[in-house]
Amino acid sequence: MDCGEPAHREFLRRVEAIPLHGLGLSVDIYSPDLPSLRRSLLERQVPPAYFEIFRNTTRALVSTRNEIGDARLTYHGEGLWITQPRVTESWLFRQAVGEAGEHLHVLQSAWLNHECAAKFFAGHCFGTYLPPLYTRGSAEVVAENTTAVQRQLDQQGCLQDGSRPLVLLEMPPLTYFVAGTLPIPTFFHVICNQSACGLVLDIGHLWTVYRYTGACRAMTLPRFVETFLDDFPLERVVEIHVAGLDIHESIRACLTQEITRTDVPALPAWTDAHAAPIPPVLLEMLDQVLSHPRLINLRGLALEVDTKPPDLIVEEFAVFARRYASVFHQKGDCEKPRPLCEVNAVPESKRSASTEATIEEAYERYVQVLLGKAEPRGLEWNQDPVGTHELELYRSLYLPYEILHWSGEVEDMFVGSCRRLRERGIALEGFVAFWFRNSQPLADLYDFFLLKVDRFVAFIHEVAPDVEELAAAEAEGLRQAYRIANEPSQTLQSS
Ligand SMILES: [Fe+2]
Fold first, then answer.
1. Which of 45, 282, 361, 454 is the most exposed place for a label (fewest CB within 10 A)?
2. What is the 411 CA–ligand 1 centroid distance (Å)?
3. How would residue 2 be classed by pLDDT, with cut points 50, 70 and 90?
């Protein structure tokens, strides 16, 4: 990357204010329970140098900040759909960035890490992240939106040490397919040429790029990593993540049949799985990344362990801490940050309305392909029959699983309503079709569980109106239980 570029100069000014964070854990505060996980790590004498905390309520983050004391915390945000054209025009987006800014200040986090991906686009909601359309125009949209996020965060003021949180974009995983034909390293180069953001490189995500772009059929994994890193803006990488990989349960049975039938040795169809053990191959890839001469701005190296069993977290972190103890010593001790309250804003680059419309249409086509309503043909799709086959895994198995089972098992949520549907022979699969039938705008900050609750009641209204009263009562019970689970102290105080 050319250090003379304004965006890169601005990145350097900002990243120099961030101290080395060292070896950390990226966690959710409830899953597993963070205080008891910290105790287990201390007993094992492997306290992480920092915790990256996944988005939660402000109240929960305040109590985590108070509990953790002086330990360094960073923030893993969610709900800023920066891959989407025109997203910054929405008041919900500004509200979501405002919330992220508040959380950064609560945690005194040096960075906002956010996936360069979305769960909401072209008016459709998904349970897990979908990668961006890998095209040049789409990268320019991301750059512009990321700059807008940074600008709004800057307006929310400095942290106590005088620095300002830096926006980091994490390269997302691929889940069986890739959309767009621009090489992924080039995509991130385009973003970094236009935005002062940093990046997070997740090693498991990188493995999925090897697996699902077809690179695994063309070259060895070490050769792929070498080629990828040579083309990737590695000097922008501020944090590295390592998490587990696993066969997703929605496709497990299908793959067993497939392998038996074809008898073709292939790489496993792993996807990103934070609860799963870290396969050794990821540490080999990590060694290769860490030895790259352009990895010069790394500040943190974290295992991403939300939803993982605590014993496994402690065991893996102990091994990890031993193996990578010297990484940050070689880069210097965790020095104090240099205050940097005055920063230069990266010049705003406004794209034309017609270009925005073109990208919007491309995302609409992307969704139509995912839903099986259009063929994966044309400029945005690689004409690869293997890729198309695996896209079918996503469409026919993974996606219905998200709606019916992920983040709330519909049959367990609406026990009475589902029983009444069964009695009438109405299949729950109809809910999947209903979910994706029409596009609609978001009415509130993104919460997949609450969306599922609302939409199931709407589904019942359509297919079994006389069950609607029961479904509405079950829905209200679910919303209340959800509020109590998320804000236990607040609910107790107000009741
Ligand atoms: Fe990650």
1. 45
2. 30
3. low
Distance CA 370, CA 130 (A): 10
CA 201 to ligand 1 center in whole angstroms:
7
Measured N-to-C along each axis, helices 415-423 and 448-463 cross at an angle, to the nearest 10 degrees, of 30
**What is the 492 CA–ligand 1 centroid distance (Å)?**
34
Least Cα distance to 317 among 211, 431, 309 occurs for 309
| Mean pLDDT for all residues in the chain | 90
Closest among 18, 10, 13 to 298, alpha carbons compared: 18
Span 93-148, pLDDT tens digits: 999 999 999 999 999 999 999 999 999 989 999 999 999 999 999 999 999 999 99
Q: How many angstroms separate the alpha carbon of residue 313 from the centre of ligand 1? A: 15
Structure tokens at 40: 């287990």
Distances (CA, A) of 357 to 86, 122, 211, 360: 9, 12, 32, 5
Task: Determine the distance separating the centroid of ligand 1 and the alpha carbon of 213, expressed in angstroms.
Answer: 19
Task: Compute the CA torsion angle 375, 381, 386, 392 (nearest 10 deg).
Answer: -40
**Two tokens, residue 264:** 């073709």
pLDDT of residue 493: 44
- CA 200–ligand 1 middle distance (angstroms): 8
Residue 346: pLDDT over 70: no
CA of 179 to the centre of ligand 1 (A): 20
Phi, psi dihedrals of residue 84, rounded to the nearest 5°: -95, 130
Question: What separation in Å is there between the alpha carbon of 168 and the centre of ligand 1?
Answer: 11
Going from the Cα of 173 to the center of ligand 1, the distance in angstroms, rounded, reads 8
Amino acid at 274: H
Residues 374, 395: contact at Cβ < 8 Å? no
Q: From ligand 1's centre to the CA of 170, what distance in Å?
A: 7
Going from the Cα of 365 to the center of ligand 1, the distance in angstroms, rounded, reads: 27
Whole-number Å distance, alpha carbon 199 to ligand 1 midpoint, is 11
Residue with tokens 């990145």: 11
Assess contact for 335 and 19: CB atoms under 8 A. Answer: yes
Structure tokens at 377: 């043909």
Which DSSP string do the residues of 41-87 spell out, in sequence order? HHHTT---SEEEEE---HHHHHHHHHHHTTSEEEEE-----TTSTTG
Give the integer Cα–Cα distance in Å for 343 and 362: 35
CA of 174 to the centre of ligand 1 (A): 12
* Distances, alpha carbon 402 to alpha carbons 138, 242, 490, in Å: 26, 24, 30
Ligand 1 center to 417 CA (angstroms): 37
In the block, tokens 């919330």 appear at 99
Alpha-carbon gap, residue 34 to 28, rounded angstroms: 7
Tell me the whole-structure pTM to 2 decimals. 0.92
Name residue, tokens 């890739």. 178
Amino acid occupying residue 305: V
